[in-house]
Structures are given as structure tokens and as C-alpha cells.
Amino acid sequence: MDSPTPTAISRSSDIQSALRADPNFRFRCELSLAPLIAFWAQAAGDPSARGALARIVGEEVERAPELLATIEDTGVIERHRELVDTLMTAVFPPAAWEQEYIAALVPFQLRAFYATPLMRRLLIARDGTLQGRVNLSEPMVAAMRLAYAHALIVRQLYGIAVDVDYPIICTVTDPETGLDLHYRMLFDWRFEEVVLDGTLPPLSEELRQGLHTNVLDPDLLRQALPPERIVIRGFTILRAVEVTDQEVLSRLKRDLIDRESIVSLTRFQGLQGRLRTLFRRPELRLGLAALEGDRVLVLNYGSRHEHACIFADSSHLTTADFAGSVFARAVKSGQPLIVDDLTALPERTPIEEELIQYGVRTMAVAPLYYQDRVIGTLDLTSPRPGDFTATHLPKLHEVLPLFSMAVQRSMEELNARIQTQIKERFTAIHPVVEWRFRKAVLDALEQEGASSGASELEPIVFEGVYPLYALSDIRGSSTQRTLAIQEDLLAQLGLARDVVEAAWTARPLPALDELRYRIDKHIDRIRHDVASGDEAGVTAFLRAEVEGLFDRLLDFGPAVPERVQAYRSALDPRRRAVYRQRRVFEESVTRLTEAIASYLDLEEQAAQSMFPHYFEKQKTDGVDHQIFVGASLMEDGRFDRLYLKNLRLWQLIVVCGIAARSEQLLRALPVPLETTHLILVQHAPLDIHFRFDEKRFDVDGAYDIRYEIVKKRIDKALIRSTDQRLTQPGRIAIVYAQPAEALEYRGYIEYLQHLGYLGLEVEDLELEELQGVHGLRALRVTVTLREAGGERPVALSALGLERTAS
Fold first, then answer.
1. Once rounded to an integer, what is the mean pLDDT over residues 417-446?
2. Degrees, nearest 5: CA angle 600-606-607
3. What is the pLDDT of residue 446?
């Protein structure tokens, strides 16, 4: 048996220095073979062959008494090397001498004096230190050494078992392959004995409990057992068990949790290094590809990319580029595909030719799945033919789910980035047209990757779409809001005047009289009329000129604090102003508009199921909604005019439902608010484009712009030769320009009259010319607001499209 030379083991020089400088470890530790010799002596009484060997060993030990004493010079071991080899067979099985990693250490000093060849080759450096890195910080190494010592001491002296078992993993680099190998360190203290100087003191119950909960506390045993009274004598057995595969898989899991694991150059190369270790192939290269629609985003072998997005520096190809390649075949088969030698393939695509030029000879390609859907591929390549075989497939299957999750997360982050850019550039985008914006952003990101600079988005235009517009407005909302503002301002001014009046009565100061005059002046003006700036002006005046005096006026007399309290109690805490009437009015407007919007949203869900279309609504003092429908809005280009007719009829039915619900809600509102309803008909299609500056859709062309002008002004339109507004409560006005439009809607009206939605009278009205627009006409019809004898408003029940809405 080849006996090793004395060596010393530590994590590295920094750990060794941490142990030497550790002020908390004060136990004296001595190297001794006496416990091992005692083990042999005990076996000498056995009548078997083992006992005979033990007796021979005992005789040899008697001729080497220095082995029984404390060993301060490891030269003693060298002088009795053959005997020590025999003694160590109790620890180092001869059959395992060439296969296992075992060493004998000085107690708690991490200095080896005996080790197997494998231990010396990989884990022990020439200078005697343990090569590699452990999974503990330097302070934790010192703390764990002390904890193990505490556990040994209380077990031997008090018979108390304390569990101290932390998995210590040492990582070393194989000098032959350059790959990292991982070993778990297992310590065995059976050949160590604790010697106490003096009488053994009792342990308090508190200290006994602390042994199980605070074993890392450096002061735990110091008072009961001063370290100067304790000697730890013998040697420690260290076994290193290779756990490379388990550790690599564990670290891969931890690494791939990181969001930048496959997009950071350093971390990607770290993943590649772990796979090289797992498969024991030092020249292995990792490749990942993600699928995004018809795009293939290729991350080639840890090269180039250093961005927080999978799209940033990846190679962008299309799925057509991979047709017939080993990648396409692997995806089609759904299983990993191994190619022993690319140059031996009978039919090679440009993809394989490029890989051969890159130096690849053997490769394995596997599809990556997420929820039973292929989201990408993983490939492992090597410049050596036959370097990857079927024996590697079990390990490959273990890592595929890990990389699937990482690629899926990166694609989700890419989608999030796209959504962020969509929101930043376009605000919220309707789902029907999101495909077009997504395509524009992806194209821009690809151009950024190619040019290393920010790219402008291409124009987003939808040609030949049909618009449908409707408005439900609150009649007289501006007047009622002005009245509410007026009442609140007068109330606050009156309360302020009461304070000043009480203060002046107590102390008639000229300044107070002048302030009262200014308040009266504001009251007279507000009572007569409220201008656009009065709300802010009066509030600013009261805060600056009146409220600032309150604290100084409190001692002017007993009436003043009462008036000040009345003023302050009347203020809204958030607005710091009287807001009673305005709150009542705003609550009424909000309840009404929310009811209309909620009903509209519910019905819109049904309309989308009929045919997808662009929809947007806006709430002010009322609710208006805009619909665009047409072939260009659809990614697949499908469209039929039947769907346009269906949406026009749907819109008219919904406006009837809005009118009925508004009437039903009227009695429940704090401020009774009436609504008017209007539909604008545009028979010819128009083009719309997205305006990046305003983040909204706008129309193209002079004729199309006319439509937008009508939308903005039509609710104020008058009937020709009268001063009567076209829009009236309880009626729907359908504005049109072409006779064909009126004919189509008369058909819808007749149908809804049959269902009981609309009254029998239909007015055909000519409108006064709007600025820049003339020739408009309108059909006006009364809405049947309630079913006979019922409380439920007539809505979509007759068509089976009714939706519940509060």
C-alpha cells in the first residue's frame, strides 16, 4: 500500500487564516494515535484471525512506544510508516485505497497526516492545503468548527447528543479536464477523545436547552467548561464523496431561477460550464433557441449577448430557415436527436453547413416544452465526432425542464418588454389590433439589435375600415355644475364672513372691516354669475387672506372659536374647500356614467363574440363609444359586410338599452340628470392611422377628416330653421349624409319598433349647417323606456342577448 506524505488541508489560505485568527476556538488539540491503538487492543481478545492480527499489531506497537504519545512531529509517522499503514487499515480499507477519497486529520486543525492517492491528487495541493472552494463563508467555517467541537465535548462528557450536520461541499478543478468536480465532506470523530482537567461541573437546564438551539454561540460552554481545561486528543477521519451530478443539477436550478441566466454573457457561460461538468465534456458548447411566432431567436453558445432581454443580441431567423435541419427534425419528432458526425450527414441544410464551419462535429438537439407546447430548442455541440452518445440522454432529460422554464420566463419578459413599449408608445391597445402593434415593436427591436441604436416604429395604418360612433350625453350638465360651484362658494364665503363679523364685533379693527368688505364683494359677484376662474380665485383668496388669520382671532371673543370651528368643519378634508353641492352633483354624474359604461362593456363582450372589432369608449359628462371594423384590422384579413350590418343593429339596440337604464336611474340620483343619445352613420370606409404623439387613432384624408369634424360638433346641432337641439331626452338621433344610410337604418328602426324598443313615429330632419359641414340629415325616434307594467328597462331580451348589469 502506497502511504502518503504528510499534508495539510484547508479550504484555501483565507479559510486557514480565518481558523488561525479565530479567537473563539481555544481548545487544545493534539494529534494522537492512541484511540486507534486502543481499538486494536480491544480486538486482540477476539479468538478469530482478526484477533490474531490485532495481537501482532499490539506487539509491534510495544516496540514503538512513541506512537502512543502525543505526536508533535509527523516525522514519527514516517519512521513507523509500515506499522501506521497497518493500523490505518481499520479506517482505510485496502480494497478502497485506490478508489476512495479519505484522509486523517489533526483534530479541528484541518491538517492531514495521512490520505489516499485520490485525495492527494485532487483535494490536496502541493503546499498541503485543500484545493477548491467550500460552500461556507469564512466566518461560518469558524463557527461550524466550534459547533462540532461543542457537540463532541458534551457527547463525551455529558452523554448529550447534539445534532450538527451541515452539508459541506468542496469544489475542485480536475487538472486533467479543467472541469469542476464537487465533493461532500463527511467528518468522523470516533478516534477523538475529550480530556477534562479537574472535576466535571454540572450543566444547568438553561444551558442544556441552549445546546440544541444556540450551538453556534461561541460563549455557550465558556462559563461551565473553560476551554483551558479541555484537551481534544486523537485524529479526525475525513471522507470526500463525489456529488458532482447532484450539485450541478442543484446549482443549475438555482442559476436558472435568475432572470438573466440565459441573457447575460457571464451567466450563460456559467451554465455552459456546469453542463460541461455534468456531461464530463470540457469542449461542450450550449445553444438555446426560442420560438416567437414565425421568428426563431437563437442564443448561440454563450456568445455576444449581454442584455436583459432574450431579443436584444440574439440571432433572428425564421422557422423557414430551419426547414429540414436537425432542429426541425427534433421538434417534429418531439424527442432529442443525436448526430454522431455532422460531416457524415447525407443531406445537409445551410444550418448544418454553418455549424460545420463553426467547428461542430457532433451534436444533440432537444425540443423545449412548456405546457405541452414547443417553445424552443436546446442543443449541445462538440468539435469531437462521437463526443455525445445515447448514454448521456438520461442526464439531458433531467436538465431540459430547467431550461424550458428559463426560456419561457425570458419569453414572458420579452412579451412584458413589448407590452411596456406598447403602453409607453401607444397607451392601452385594444386586443383586436394588438397583433399589429406587437409586430411593429418586434420589428423595431430586431432593427435595434442589428444597428445597436434606437429604431423608429413603422407607421401603423388600417385601411378601409368602417366607423360606428354613438354618444350618450347628460343634458345641461355644464349649467348644473356651475350652480353647484356657485352654492358651494357662497356657503364658504358666508362661513368666512361669519368669522370676520364675530371678530370685528369683539374688536372693531379697521382691517377686519376692510376684509369683511372684500368678502361681501366676492359674495355679490358670485351670486350674480360664476366665471371660469372664480372657483380657483375665491378658494385662493380665502386661504391666503382669511384662513391665515383664524389662529390669531381665536382670543377675540367666545363667538370667534365657534365660527372658526363651523368654517373648518364645513370644509372637505381633501380639497380644503366647501364641496357639498359639487359632491352631490359629481356623485350623480359618476353613478350615471358608470351605469352606462358598465352596461356598454357587458354588451360589448357579446358584440366581440359576433365579430372582432376595435372598440373604445370615453367618459366625461356622458359616455361616447367608437367602433372600427374591417378586413385590415384582422390578422388573417377575414371580413364580410354582414358583420358590419350586425354591429350597426347591435349599436342601435344598445343605445336603446342605455336610454332605458338612464331613465330608470333618474329617480334614484341625488341630482336628476337627463341623457340624450346620438348615432353618427358613415357609409363609406375610411383609413385610420395611429398618432404616436397623441397615442390615439386618427383618420387619414380630407374626406375622412370631415367625419371627425362632424363627431366633435354634431351634439350641438340644431334642426334647420329652429332653435331646437337635435338631441332630446328619451329620443335617439341617427345622423346621416347619404340616402342609402337612411334607408338602411329605417329597416333597423322598423325591426326594433316590431320588438317594442322604439316608438312608431320617425322624424326625418334637416340640420343647420355646421362649421365646415353641410348637407346633414337625421332620423329621430322615441325610445320605449319601460315595458308595460314592469320595472325592467327594455334591452336585449327580445334577441336573447340580455346581460345582467347593476
1. 71
2. 80
3. 65
Question: Can you tell me the mean pLDDT for 503-514?
Answer: 92
| This prediction's pTM | 0.54
Decide: 690 and 696 in contact? Cβ < 8 Å: yes
Rounded to whole angstroms, the Cα distance separating 459 from 316 reads 22
Range 71-99 burial, b when 16+ CB lie within 10 A, else e: beebebbeebeebbbbbbeebbeeeebee
Q: In the 8-state DSSP scheme, what is residue 669?
A: S
For the chain, the residue count is 806
Would you call 9 helix, strand, or coil by DSSP?
coil
Cα torsion 390, 395, 401, 404: sign: negative
> Looking at residue 128, what is its pLDDT?
64
What is the residue whose three cell numbers read 370651528?
Answer: 565
**pLDDT tens profile 441-497:** 777 766 665 444 456 777 888 899 999 999 999 988 888 888 999 999 999 999 999
Q: Is 162 exposed, middle or buried (0-12, 13-18, 19+ CB in 10 A)?
A: middle
**Model confidence band, residue 17 (pLDDT cutoffs 50, 70, 90):** low
Judged by DSSP in three states, 724 sits in coil
CA 729, chain centre distance (Å): 49
Mean pLDDT of the chain: 84
Q: How far is residue 188's CA from residue 145's CA, in Å, rounded to a whole number?
A: 13
Q: How many CB atoms lie within 10 A of CB 585?
A: 23
Q: How many helices (H) and strands (E) does the chain have?
A: 23, 24
Helix (H) or strand (E) run with residue 488 in it? helix 477-506
d(CA 227, CA 234): 17
Sheet with 230-234, edge to edge strand ranges? 28-31, 230-234, 192-196
Contacts with 232 (C-beta within 8 Å, 6 or more apart), sequence order: 27, 28, 29, 30, 107, 108, 149, 152, 153, 192, 193, 194, 195
* CA nearest to 234, candidates 371, 123, 91, 69: 69
Residue with cell 477519497: 101
Q: Give the model confidence (pLDDT) of 578-619 as tens digits.
A: 999 999 999 999 899 999 999 999 999 889 988 999 998 888
pLDDT tens digits, one per residue of 684-735 = 898 888 877 666 777 766 557 778 888 888 888 999 999 999 999 999 999 9
Per DSSP, helices labelled H in 159-243 are 205-213
Q: Which residue type occupies 679?
A: I
**Where would I find the H helices in 99-242?**
117-118, 138-158, 205-213
Q: Are 366 and 336 in contact (CB under 8 A)?
A: yes
Judge contact between 656 and 599, C-beta under 8 A. Answer: no
For residue 88, CA distances in Å to 3, 41, 237, 645 come to 10, 14, 11, 96
Closest C-alpha to 108, from 241, 11, 232, 240: 232
Burial call 242-277: b when 16+ CB within 10 Å, e when fewer: ebbeebbbebbeebbeeebbbbbeebbebbbbbbbb
Three cell numbers, residue 315: 440571432
| CB atoms closer than 10 angstroms to residue 24 | 14
Query: How far is 295 from 319, CA to CA, in rounded Å?
Result: 6
Q: Cell 472552494, residue?
A: 133
Locate all alpha helices (DSSP H) within 296-392, ordered by sequence: 326-333, 350-357
Q: Are 388 and 281 in contact (CB under 8 A)?
A: yes
- The span from the CA of 805 to the CA of 661, in Å, is 10
Residue 791, classified by CB atoms within 10 Å of its CB into exposed (0-12), middle (13-18) or buried (19+), is exposed
Q: CB atoms < 10 A from the CB of 630, how many?
A: 23
